[in-house]
Amino acid sequence: MKKVGLYFGTFNPIHIGHLVIANHMVEFSNLDEVWLVITPQSPFKTKKTLLDDNHRYQMVFEATAEYPKLKPSKIEFELEQPNYTINTLVHLEENYGREIQFSLLMGEDNLKGFHKWKNYEAILENYSIYVYPRIAAGKVDHQFKNHPKIHKVEAPIMQISSTFIRKQHAAGKNIRPMLPEAVYRYMDEMNFYRP
After folding, report:
1. DSSP state, 100?
2. What is the pLDDT of residues 109-156, one digit of tens each?
3. CATH classification code of 2-189
């Protein structure tokens, strides 16, 4: 059975930090593929700063084109919004459950707030979680420490954020090295994140 890690994000825009983490997770764990799941609207984020869903999908498509183990996914575009991870997992199980074993990828910062997720107990009961390191305040809840379904992966710590890229691009700074070349070209041609 194929093992797929689900890497959720708004990818607004996708940057080299996302790619480094996704590639590291697929190369240095037992995962066969990582699907980058573009989130239309996170329950924790406002929609006003988001580019159109299809533009963000296109940038993820461009960014992953040369990485056969990394796949863009717009599975959440089909689901009612705002959506929760548990709903996506149920949907994926209904469609791929016999062929694919799904896991979640998340940063350590997300693990610290995981107890606030809708139906987090059901997620933890049925799915493995691969955690990559992040520098962030707060502590991981004791119930998640040494949990058999939670696997910490020693990945490079990436301190690049999409928020920083958008802000600095709007200010006229050169953010090109932080983006896959195809993403930068697409963003530039479409004049995204400009004031």
Report:
1. E
2. 889 899 999 999 999 999 999 998 877 666 777 788 888 999 988 888
3. 3.40.50.620
